[in-house]
Design goal:
Elements (H helix, E strand, L loop, with lengths): L4 H62 L1
Length: 67
């Protein structure tokens, strides 16, 4: 390496740091996306259930007023 040892090892260190940070960010974002998707799916299920309940309530109220 001669006189360039410091530069070589510094570039290896910076490259390794960048790869570790990229891997950590990817894991963090993956978790964040999975959490967001599961939250949105749960919300969609609650909305569907509420609509079905409201529809059932409307059907029961219209049947009760006919009787």
């Amino acid at each position: 390496m001669g006189n360039r040892g410091f530069y070589v090892w510094l570039s290896f260190g910076v490259s390794l740091l960048a790869m570790v940070l990229l891997a950590a960010q990817s894991l963090y974002m993956s978790k964040a996306v999975k959490t967001y998707v599961s939250t949105q799916q749960a919300r969609a299920q609650r909305i569907i259930a509420a609509r079905a309940k409201r529809k059932q309530k409307n059907i029961e109220s219209t049947q009760g007023s006919k009787a």
